[in-house]
Amino acid sequence: MRRIERSLHDGTQARLVTLAMNAGLAKEKLAEGADPAAAVPLLDRVHVLAKESIAEVRDLARGIHPAGLDDGLDTALRTLAAHSTVPVRVATGIEARPTPAVETIAYLCAAELLTNAVKHSGAGRIEIDVRAGRGRLRLAVADDGRGGARPGGGTGLPGLAERARPVDGTMTIDSPSGGGTTVTIELPLSAEDAL
């Protein structure tokens, strides 16, 4: 969320302010009866800024709602696993589809955990298990790597706990040294506007 806020504030907002200023200047020139050609460079700049802003918003939106989720969390996780350089087995048991906010949080957590396992664990295989029941969604990502993962160890784990927190989600880590790592994220099945 902070990354998105920064991107909107520092990038898109600044670009849109410049766009509005250039459009205002072009409007003033035309209102003053100036030669319309004098407004063309300003309008050209407005056009470029508008296209850049659209592209930037599109990129930000991709970070909020991954396109792979259109077909459901199980399909999105299988697609994610298929692109991994370490073999990944995906098991799902989702009878009722979670709300979009919960699906997005679960997917982004799975993507981060998969990336962490591939980069840091030395794992030969990874398992992603997602189950839904009793109003909760349980995502577990386990690897057979070296273990020893800690929340403050610089592997992005604190960020995952923060990502789950707005919907009253929880994260637990089981990572004995030399014994692999299992990170479990539990989320409610239903949560709106959490992103």
- Major beta sheet summary: 5 strands, mixed
Low-pLDDT runs of 5+ residues are: none
| Order of H and E elements | HHHEHEEHEE
Compute the CA-based radius of gyration. 23 Å
How many β-strand stretches?
5
Portion in strands: 15-25%
Mean pLDDT score = 84
**What is the number of helical segments per DSSP (H or I, 4+ residues)?**
5
How many angstroms separate the termini?
7 Å
What kind of oligomer do you see? single chain
Structural class: alpha+beta
Rough outline: elongated
Strand order of the largest sheet: 1-2-3-5-4
The helix content, as a percent range, equals: 40-55%
Describe this structure as you would to a colleague.
It is a single chain. With 195 residues, the chain is α+β, with helices and mostly antiparallel strands. 49% of the residues lie in helices and 18% in strands. It has a 5-stranded mixed beta sheet with strand order 1-2-3-5-4, covered by helices on one side. Helix 1 packs antiparallel against helix 2, helix 3 runs parallel beside helix 4 and helix 4 (100-121) packs antiparallel against helix 5. The model has no long low-confidence stretch (mean pLDDT 84).
